[in-house]
Amino acid sequence: MSSVLDQTGSDLLFTKARTFSTFLDKPVDEDLLRKAWDLARMGPTSVNCLPARIVFVRSAEAKARLKPALAPGNVDKTMAAPVTAIIGHDMAFYDRLPDLFPHADARSWFVGNEALIQGTAFRNGTLQGGYFLLALRAVGLDCGPMSGFDNAKVDADFFAGTTVKSNFLINIGHGDAAGLYPRGPRLAFDDACRVL
């Protein structure tokens, strides 16, 4: 279990991977989305709570529903992307804990504790969204994660009648390198990290 990802894998996930705003006119096979989920779901979450819930917006009808919730600068790129994933988190994730964490009564730790529910759902759902982005890259897809949308509108349209809240969006497809900007700078270890 202690093997190291080779340079090709590191390049695919991090070093050469880019955030895409434009995509080639090439459909995304649902099988790739399923493969990406099967990878992402293996990442760790608190008490294996797995709160992430994803809606894949692909059809013209679904995109038309999403469009009014988008910030103006995100409309064109989202409408042109083959798929947009709405990354959400289930505020009632703890109801699944008897199955997902069966060796303790973890559900009782959350019931009635709104602050713990909110923090756990948001933190772990965001974490799973990050895993999912890397999993998309791992199966050969490119991504454009973003905020810049009206969460309340998205929740009312795509998560009505559920306990799921939206967090962020990921445009997904086969990236068009012609639309890339130069890579932005990154903070060095000593600028962002401390070893105590």
TrEMBL record:
It comes from the Bacteria. Its cofactor is FMN. Coiled coil: none annotated. One of its GO terms (molecular function) is oxidoreductase activity. Signal peptide: none annotated. Gene3D superfamilies: NADH Oxidase. Residues 18-156 form the Nitroreductase domain. Its EC number is 1.-.-.-. Pfam families: Nitroreductase. SUPFAM superfamilies: FMN-dependent nitroreductase-like (SSF55469). Keywords: Flavoprotein, FMN, NAD, NADP, Oxidoreductase. HAMAP family: Oxidoreductase_RutE_HadB. PANTHER family: MALONIC SEMIALDEHYDE REDUCTASE RUTE-RELATED. Belongs to the nitroreductase family. HadB/RutE subfamily. This is Putative NADH dehydrogenase/NAD(P)H nitroreductase CU669_10670. It comes from Paramagnetospirillum kuznetsovii.
